[in-house]
Amino acid sequence: MRSWRRGIKEMDLILGPFSDSELAGLDPAMLDLYEALLNENDHDLYQWVTARIGTGSAQPKGPQTYAGLMDRIAAFAATRL
């Protein structure tokens, strides 16, 4: 539910479908990382995702801790464009 009720609608539309489709397939460590990611600021998350899908290449890509998960979220989001 936290994936669908974010602070900005853009992140609802990115994280909501990702969680509906992908969370069941994540291992426990990746689920813990996803839970930590949900505590990050939505505006930061949006910049990190868009930087990875090529619409904001000059934007920061976020902490290295989240790199693999953010790449996966961005790839999923890119398929929905």
TrEMBL record:
SUPFAM superfamilies: YgfY-like. Pfam families: Sdh5. Keywords: Chaperone. It comes from the Bacteria. GO terms for biological process: tricarboxylic acid cycle. The keyword Chaperone applies. The keyword Chaperone applies. InterPro entries: SDH, SDH_sf. Belongs to the SdhE FAD assembly factor family. This is FAD assembly factor SdhE. It comes from Pararhodobacter marinus.
